[in-house]
Amino acid sequence: SSTMTLSEAEVQSACGAWEKIYVDAEDNGTAVLVRMFTGHPDTKSYFTHFKGMDSAEEMKQSDQVRGHGKKVFSAINDMVQHLDNSEAFLGIVTPLGKKHATQLKIDPKNFRIICNIILQLMEEKFGGDSKASFEKVTNEICTHLNSIYKEEGW
């Protein structure tokens, strides 16, 4: 569906939770990727330049991992800024989903993995309320990405 299911109050609290983690976009984005690569090593196979890295320490220091961590957080930030406008939100999610489905051929289950790690990090840093308020956003993102994947024939 193209309509957002978040109330105005939910959007407000989700934005508040996200702002706290986005302040350190590069470090937190990197931490999320490092957890994903170490906890789900198969996800590394999509990144040719990360393949040889085995230690979390090595990944943390990598400019490529840091750069991609920041990129992921910037993309989510763009979505969060438009939670109150489905058209603008979809304008960001749709090309991103299409690119990951057709060019990069990333298994869509990886979006759920990365979202869960972001929620886990939020809970550790800022508590359960932050996590709970942002969970609705990650569900929204994953739902839309999955429907784009279906349209692309996954």
UniProtKB/TrEMBL annotation:
Cellular localisation: Cytoplasm, Sarcoplasm
Q: Which InterPro entries match?
A: Globin, Globin-like_sf, Globin/Proto, Globin_lamprey/hagfish, Myoglobin
Q: Which GO terms describe its cellular component?
A: sarcoplasm
Asked if the keyword Metal-binding belongs to this entry, the reply reads yes
Q: Which UniProt keywords apply?
A: Cytoplasm, Heme, Iron, Metal-binding, Muscle protein, Oxidoreductase, Oxygen transport, Transport
Instruction: List, in alphabetical order, the Gene Ontology terms for molecular function in this entry.
Output: heme binding; iron ion binding; oxygen binding; oxygen carrier activity; superoxide dismutase activity
**From which residue to which does the signal peptide run?**
none
Q: Chief subcellular site?
A: cytoplasm
The UniProt entry, under Gene3D superfamilies, shows: Globins
Domain (Globin) ranges: 5-150
- Which Pfam family, any one, appears in the UniProt record? Globin
Q: Which reaction does it catalyse?
A: 2 superoxide + 2 H(+) = H2O2 + O2; H2O2 + AH2 = A + 2 H2O; Fe(II)-heme b-[protein] + nitric oxide + O2 = Fe(III)-heme b-[protein] + nitrate; Fe(III)-heme b-[protein] + nitric oxide + H2O = Fe(II)-heme b-[protein] + nitrite + 2 H(+)
Give the source's domain of life in one word: Eukaryota
Classification via PANTHER family: CYTOGLOBIN, GLOBIN FAMILY PROFILE DOMAIN-CONTAINING PROTEIN
Q: Which family does it belong to?
A: Belongs to the globin family.
What is the purpose of this protein?
Answer: Involved in oxygen transport from the lung to the various peripheral tissues.
Its name, as the record gives it, is: Myoglobin
